[in-house]
Amino acid sequence: MAIVATNLKRGQCIKYEGERGVVLGLEHRTPGKGNALIAATIRSFNTGKTKTIRFASNEKVDIVETDRQKLEFSYAEPGTYHFMDMQTFETTGLDEGFIGDAKDFLTEGQEVEVLFIEGSPVSLDLPSSVELEITESSEGIKGDTANNPTKPATLSTGLVVQVPLFVKQGDRIKISTEDASYIGRA
Question: Which of 57, 73, 76, 178 is the most buried (most CB within 10 A)?
């Protein structure tokens, strides 16, 4: 399906220059001379890189068929992470390479959104923060409160993060999935 470039919207998936990508941002530009342009910021699914593509306002752009599914993480086995569709109860196995660093935030029963393009998974979106349990952490030194000190803590997924001294082993904490930083106690 093709649409005119002026009808593009953020979040749409398109084919451009032989690649497929998602539109992250749009800017309508009208130069002093000539026709109007649409500058689209696009992230490629093949390379993961972002670039700006210019389309003439009357140019046709190919839209790619997409499907966003909310899936629940079930379990992991070496090389594969299994997710279940809560509507159909079908299980989908995703390759460990595709999951990448998201594995540090996945817990059993957690919902994620997976974008499928033409039947193939291309991106996995986590919530902005997750709650994880601290499985290992050293005791804070009493009286060491200068300059907001932190200590390393190992979480239930194996991720090691810096936490304040008052946080103890067994506590549940909130972690940002953007930069793996401590947000607060759960």
Answer: 73
